[in-house]
Design goal:
Blueprint (H helix, E strand, L loop, with lengths): L1 H5 L3 H27 L4
């Protein structure tokens, strides 16, 4: 169990986290502009 955690590549986790933030931020910006009444 501990060997699995120690073998995890943190660079991959960091890249996946960045990718997840970008995927979430995309629609979030559109929703924010929609609520503010801004034109796309």
């Amino acid at each position: 169990m501990f060997n699995v955690f120690s073998s995890i590549n943190f660079e991959v986790i960091f890249q996946l986290t960045m990718l997840a933030m970008i995927v979430i931020a995309g629609p979030a910006v559109v929703v924010l502009l929609a609520f503010r009444g801004g034109n796309l």
